[in-house]
UniProtKB/TrEMBL annotation:
Residues 22-216 form the BPL/LPL catalytic domain. Its EC number is 6.3.4.15. Pfam families: BPL_C, BPL_LplA_LipB. NCBIfam families: birA_ligase. CDD domains: BPL. It comes from the Bacteria. This is biotin--[biotin carboxyl-carrier protein] ligase. PANTHER family: BIOTIN PROTEIN LIGASE, BIOTIN--PROTEIN LIGASE.
């Protein structure tokens, strides 16, 4: 990595000693190996969106499956519905990966964001020692002083005809006065035993490689691969009364009772109907 000039507004890459830069050499040594999923790992100091950059690289033929692009700072990070994701430099993990599951039927690719959620939660539990939960479909939750808060999100985008770019943003060392909204959290605020981003990133990517391998070997069958069961076990949305805000200004209220074989959230409504929700915003109305 090229150090940032000390005359820049944010100073040198070492200006915040509590937030050292990622060690690209160690990351490559730990993740890229013969027969493994990860084919290349790049770290950039600053970019608008790692997802947009990696989608463009894939379209230009400059990225293959297993490419990983990490940014120390994102200025235009995006969540679902084009929501903005911002954080101070080196305060979190902001990265995207390119996957090309050619042997899996396209109709099963909708499981990839949920698979990534399971992998991220598993990897962080091992590497950070912090309990995390998943809010359907793409949020990572932590508990801060007894309150459930969002510490991360996942965004999947098609990359050409045969690929998917999955972006992950995780707040690692954000302090209370740096949070973009009061409902946000970070691993540090949740009492993580480690906020060293190098082992955290390696742990998450190794977990993602493991889960993606199981899912791909099962032809994308979430039941056979164990993914459906694992997601349900870690999903904080299940067992709660929720409001699903759907496209077309429609809303459905009911108890979240299951995640079906297609990765949809199944709501049991007061009318006695079980309605699967494939897309939309979910609002937790009461504790599980």
């Amino acid at each position: 990595m090229t150090p940032r000039d000390a005359s820049e507004p944010n100073g040198s890459r070492w200006s915040d000693l509590d937030r050292p830069p990622l060690n690209i050499t160690a990351l490559r040594r730990g993740l890229v190996h013969e027969g493994g999923l990860w084919s290349e790992v790049d770290v950039v100091q600053r970019t608008g969106s790692t997802n947009s950059d990696l989608v463009a690289r894939a379209a230009e033929g400059r990225a293959t499956e297993g490419a990983v692009l990490v940014a120390e700072e994102q200025t235009a990070g995006r969540g679902r519905l084009d929501r903005q994701w911002t954080a101070p430099p080196r305060s979190g993990l902001f990265f995207s990966v390119l996957l090309t599951p050619s042997e899996v039927p396209v109709e099963r690719w909708g499981w990839l964001p949920l698979l990534t959620g399971v992998a991220v939660a598993t990897g962080l539990s091992r590497a950070a020692g912090v309990d995390t939960a998943l809010k359907w479909p793409n949020d990572l939750l932590v508990t801060v002083r007894g309150e459930e808060r969002k510490a991360g999100g996942i965004l999947a985008e098609r990359a050409g005809d045969g690929g998917v770019v999955i972006g992950v943003g995780i707040n690692v060392t954000l302090k209370e006065d740096e949070l973009p909204v009061p409902t946000a959290g970070s691993l540090g605020l949740a009492g993580a035993v480690s906020t060293d981003r190098d082992p955290l990133l390696r742990g998450v990517l190794r977990s993602l490689e493991e889960w993606y391998g199981k899912w791909r070997a099962a032809g994308g069958d979430a039941g056979v691969s164990g993914l459906q069961e694992a997601y349900a076990a870690g999903c904080a949305t299940l067992g709660r009364e929720v409001r699903a805000e759907l496209p077309g200004d429609r809303a459905v209220v009911g108890e979240a009772v299951a995640v079906d074989g297609d990765g949809r959230l199944v709501l049991a409504t007061e009318e006695g109907v079980q309605e699967p929700v494939g897309a939309g915003d979910i609002v937790h109305l009461r504790p599980a």
